[in-house]
Amino acid sequence: MRYAKGHKESTREKIVQAASRRFRQDGAEGVGVAALMAEAGLTHGGFYSHFESKEALLSASIEEGMTQSLDELIQLAKRYGDDVTALARAYLHPRHRDHPEKGCAAAALAPELARHSATTRAAFTARLQALFKLIEERLPATLSAAQRRERSMAIFATLMGTLQMARAVDDKGLSERILQSGIHAATALAQG
Amino acid sequence: MRYAKGHKESTREKIVQAASRRFRQDGAEGVGVAALMAEAGLTHGGFYSHFESKEALLSASIEEGMTQSLDELIQLAKRYGDDVTALARAYLHPRHRDHPEKGCAAAALAPELARHSATTRAAFTARLQALFKLIEERLPATLSAAQRRERSMAIFATLMGTLQMARAVDDKGLSERILQSGIHAATALAQG
DNA sequence: GCCATTAAATGACGATCATCATATTAGATG
DNA sequence: CATCTAATATGATGATCGTCATTTAATGGC
Q1: Residue A63 domain boundaries
Q2: Residue A18: is its pLDDT beyond 90?
Q3: Which among A43, A138, B127, B161 could disulfide-bond with A160, CB atoms 3.0 to 4.6 Å apart, if both were Cys?
Q4: Residue range A112-121: mean pLDDT, rounded
Q5: Would you tell me how many other CB atoms lie within 10 Å of the CB of residue B126?
Q6: What is the mean pLDDT of chain B?
């Protein structure tokens, strides 16, 4: 249809946005190509003119989802005081637990990612390291760079593991206690 | 065929064992009923005389897998000194990272579990609490019971999150550093 | 050694999966 | 306004999904 130039790019972007939500909500294997396209307001046919495969869309979605939730995390953390405790409070907020589709892609998909393509895992690794950096910058300057780097990894592991457990357990009270334990632990790990 | 009594029970057990391996390896949605039965040396037909649904098998497999890896963790930890650091070293050993099918079911399946039935999540919750207790028992007696309980949750979150990240990243060196960071963090969180 | 019983195998159900070939149609270009 | 082209839709591929009805076959009880 000889659309305005950039039309296809923007459609592709819409697909990635919609897919990144759906993948986080239902898992990479929990949603099909047709449903992903429908979520973007399209039919399934044109999919392969935008992406080489479903795996390629997953790759792009991971990048999109990780970037998006990283940005949002930064914004939210600022409101809480912008230190590691603030990050933890933002990340481990019940709203985040209850809305995986808008939240951290790592928490929603980490175990599956280990089974996916090198490209997908590379995209994930790059974004994960940006996340580490975000935490590093909020650790006390009294720590060495190497110490900050190591701690940032463990702090994110704690946040992600905590969020996943809080989502998986079948007991609302326990879920709340798990979230609290994560906030306290992240704070403790951030001490000089 | 009027087999010896207990034959069917033992077949059922074999299916659960095999399924618990496969679910951890490929995810709950990554493997079909036919493949699960084949893994146990059977064909798919008899499946529904053993289980009400695939979901019911998942439920039993979570229970089996969590119990199994809990027992193994206890055994391994003993060799390392039987404190929290020992648990962390056992849990975050490269062998565990490289063999999810024999390892912790929580680390392999946590995000998916949040999307499954109440029964499955209840089975998971019960086993998770046994895991918390295991850690609690290895925390210093100088801490209050409430403190030990809270810390045990955060310590397991750290271990699980660390293992998942170490599995997902596309960089062997980074993976090793992630594992180390988790061991150090778990040790730090276990201090009185 | 046959029979009754029942575990397991065969095979089929409609639905959905990822992928692709072909047809339609929107809209910028002339 | 008519035309051309590229973006999307339609529709089909064979494979696999979970589930179930029917058939086969093994063996303890007689």
Answers
A1: 54-189
A2: yes
A3: B161
A4: 98
A5: 15
A6: 95
- Total domain count for chain A? 1
Residues in B touching A147 (Cβ below 8 Å): none
Position B29 in a domain: no
Q: Quick one: DSSP state of residue B81?
A: T
Residue A192 pLDDT: 78
Confidence category of residue B192, pLDDT binned at 50, 70, 90? confident
Neighbours of A9 (CB within 10 A): 10
Phi then psi for B30, rounded to 5 degrees? -90, 0
Protein contacts on strand C: list nucleotides below 7 Å from a Cβ.
Answer: 4-12, 16-22, 25-29
Residues 113-132 of A with CB under 7 A from strand D: none
**Smallest CA–C1' separation from A50: which nucleotide?**
D7
CA distance A175 to B132: 13
Q: Is a pLDDT exceeding 50 seen at residue B88?
A: yes
The reply to whether B4 has its C-beta less than 7 Å from any atom of strand C is no
Which residue on chain B is closest to A119 by alpha carbon? B170
Whether residues B26 and A115 touch (CB distance < 8 A) is answered with yes
B169 to A121: CB separation less than 8 angstroms, yes or no: yes
Residue B132, domain member (yes or no): yes
Interface test with B, best of A29, A115, A165 (most B CBs within 10 A): A165
Cβ contacts of A105 on chain B, cutoff 8 Å: none
Q: What is the pLDDT of residue B49?
A: 94
- Give the model confidence (pLDDT) of A84-98 as tens digits: 999 999 999 999 999
Question: Alpha helices of chain B — where are they, by DSSP H?
Answer: 7-26, 33-39, 47-50, 54-80, 84-91, 94-98, 105-113, 118-136, 145-168, 172-189
Left if phi > 0, otherwise alpha if psi is -120 to 50, otherwise beta: which for A2? Answer: left
For residue A158, pLDDT over 70 is answered with: yes
Residue in the structure block whose two tokens are 């230190």: A83
**Domain of A84: which CATH number?**
1.10.357.10
Inter-residue contact B99 to B21 (CB < 8 Å): no
CB contact (8 A) between residue B169 and residue A111: no
